[in-house]
Amino acid sequence: MFLAVVSWSVFGLVNADVPESSRVVNVANRKATSRRISSHHYNLGSRSCAASACHGSIKADETNDDLIRRDEYLIWQKSDPHETSFRALSSKLGLEMFHRLGVTDVSGRALPDKEDEYLAQYNNCLNCHATKIGSRERSYVMEGVSCESCHGSASEWRVTHYQESFSELSDHEKSSTGYRNLQDHDLVAQRCVSCHIGSDQANVNHDLIAAGHPALRFELTAYLDQYPKHWKHRGESHKTDGAEAWFTGQTVSATAALQQLLRRANTDSEHHAVWPELSEFNCYACHHQLSGDSWRMTTTFGSSSLKGNEWYVFGLYTIALQRKQTGDERAAMFCQKMDSLNEILGRGWSSDQQSLEASVREALGALERWLKSIDKSEFTAEFLIAAWSEAVSEDHGVLLESWDRATQAYLALYALNEESNDGDGAKILDNLESMRELLSFPNEGSRQLNSPRDFHGELKSNSPEDNSNSTNREKIRSLMNSILKALNSKHEG
Amino acid sequence: MPDTRAIKKISERFDVESTRYSNAIKATRKKLTRAAVVLTILLVAIIYAIEDEAAFQSKPVSAHHSGFARKCELCHESSFQLPKQILGVESARFEHACTECHEQHLSDHHVNARLKADCSTCHKEHSGNNSLVEVDDNYCVTCHLGLSESLASLESPKSVSFHNSIEAIESHPEIRIKQQLRPDEKNSLLESGENANIDPNGHFVDRTSLRFNHKVHMHSDGILVPPSHPKYSTSDNGRIQLSCKTCHISKSDHTGFEPISFEQSCVQCHELSFSQYLEESQKSLSEPIPHTTPELIRGLLRERLTNYYENNESNLSGTRPSRLPTKPQSRQGSTNRDKWMSEKLQAIEAQIFTSDQSSIESSASSSCQLCHKVSIERSESQGNPPLWSIEPPKIPEKWLQHARFDHARHQLMDCTDCHYTDDINDGRISAVDSTTSKHILLPSIKTCQECHKSKRHKKPAFRGRCVDCHNYHHALPERKDDTRLLELIQN
Description:
The complex is a heterodimer of chains A (493) and B (491). Chain A has helices spanning 2-17, 72-79, 85-88, 92-100, 115-129, 147-151, 164-167, 171-176, 185-196, 206-211, 220-226, 243-264, 295-300, 314-325, 329-346, 353-373, 381-394, 403-417, 423-439, 472-492; strands spanning 131-133, 140-143, 443-444, 447-448. Chain A is 48% helix and 2% strand. Chain B has 16 helices and ten strands. In chain B, strands 1-2 form a two-stranded antiparallel sheet. In chain B, strands 3-4 form a two-stranded antiparallel sheet. In chain B, strands 5-6 form a two-stranded antiparallel sheet. In chain B, a hairpin with a 3-residue loop joins strand 7 (420-423) and strand 8 (427-430). Chain B starts with 9 loop residues before the first helix and ends with a helix.
């Protein structure tokens, strides 16, 4: 007891006399601001979740449906790619990236006159790639995206969340402790896109991509499907496929993407952004092969060339087009605003930033209004499949105008198929696999090339009945047709 | 009445007394004669007693037969054999006796060699301690001076261009493989046809399917070696100078050179590695492979891939494969192991056998195709990827089929003094400058004739007898089984 008192007071005295600036503080955090550490919630770090009686057991519980697995920490550590995200900053690619950004020398040491810039850059990385542990006054970074990055800072609910009284709290009460309810696809998607698409503090722009960062192409169902699951499947809210998951993913992604675009086009005096931000355009507008039968030639040559980055918005746009036909006014407005936005983006860098910003604002507003007005339960699998089928009914070529569109269609169909493996389902999966082959980036030895080299070939006609298979794009089209047909018959019958 | 005037009394005609006294000379002569006869008989008896029939030899038998010197009956089978032989009696030939131990035969040289001869025609015994094998040139020249006459009687001459007047080494024709063929000879069957092809100019070129460039390896600036090379530490800035001896290692009994061994000479630079083609996680697969047949390489790769798969199965199949086409496909489950293995096998083998990229670690490329002729089966068999195959190089051990060459006796010479080839355009190219393995790097007979002269040559020179290079009995090995010989020794 005496020793405890003595050591405690000594500890307090030692730190009380030491000036703030030289306390144990990670240098990278000196100027860090992080929204993950709010004024009273802070992260405890994954180690505090990892007791073997809690989430760090070697042996999982697989028998009781209403209990947790108990080996969540180990799954995260062994298989989850998020675990490696902090180490990635000092990996070979990470060091090369800093060097290419011009802030460090080859070995990773900051250049003499670039130290501030380096810190800023590094903090930008940390916002997504790490979990800041500890309170604001004394925080440090040592692990990648860990438990609290997604489940919310645990300082207030760590000792209460396993008690019965906690489960009786309302959602609002739970979230006020900092706990994030991940049973809701919406909340899950929002947390994912805050890094995987961006936010006001997380910005992966073309500079970073040019330095070596992988391009951001998030799609909720695809990512969730691949994610090593440290939870037990408990009903609808845990589904990673299906209409609800897909649609939620699309809505949240589109919103986040437009918000990020708005930030990048901002002309306001305080946060004025420099335009053009190249990652808001279609990658393959510039990064393309020079060979003859390129798909770009048919869509971009001579006409409004640089399309905007359609990856995040196209899926929702297609659905909205369908809703327009059934009389949904807000959907129609959204489509119209997107059209004019695309038209402005299509002008390339010569677009005027003011008008671009205005257009983005309008599109974002239209999207938000539409989403507020809809009832998600109307967007069933049948409806969505019908929507995709309608999209190609008049013009087969529209889904194949760019690789992004074709891949979004592929991912949508994959999700809507829900991986059923019976009879027809197996055939659909086969077709999806073949489609994937044609859309994929080639893997040559140890290098993964960054372009869809097999997505080429002329579409001879745009009529739905045409089933020729001579070029790759035509093969993709016929695969898509057969998948849609099969899905339609599955849901009708 | 007889004339009594001249009749002297017998006693007055000669001195009767003289018979009383003997003639010293005559007496001595008589004694000597008798003594000589006796002595002779005695001597012969003594020598015969000591040496048996060897006493009657003109000169000792040759060194190799000295063990049987006392056993004349081994060779001289019938009595009066020699006179009979001179008279041409067939049964008096010496062949039968020789073939008791020796397997050689007259027809060893050429199936139609017709000589009224037997072994002793060329191999003269009782000539002192010489070697019977060193037959004088004259015996060869008897046929080879006018060969076309004796060959004219053959049914189908094999279009051999034997010179018709070989008298001595000075008139020896050019070595077959260095000759330029006449147009009518181009399609003839040649004894060296296994090792050489004929190029459009009528010259012989090496037929081996192995590619090798001497010039690159023997460059005067040296060649770059990787740090793993045993001589790297003493090298000059990473370069070492190769010499002929580096790869052409002579046999321990100095009868020639060991066949070139990849493991001894080549692997230090041409390490059969392919690690630069693998992803980081697969480096464990990439140890260098041995220099062996494609079937064994495939087996080895299968083993490594299986080990890798089993050790990394969780990585390969732990996280689900992504359906995003931007990510690499990695399939899970053992049902797909065979497919994964088959794909990987195909990819890795393609790199091993045919890649032409240099490896990062060594300065020399290391695919099979660099040196060998590589081909692949047309189709799969039993679900395996098509098997690669390599044409056997067929490097001949011996180029000169009818001559012997002793490298040990020529070791004071420089390799390139003899190992050169003559090109129409470029003149003499020595082995060090040869850029292709098509060159047959053998010397012309003129190089030999520079030092080897016949006995007619006035100035001192090296011997150039027929037997120095050639062997009449070239079709057979030299020793029969030793049973008879052992019997003879033991009795």
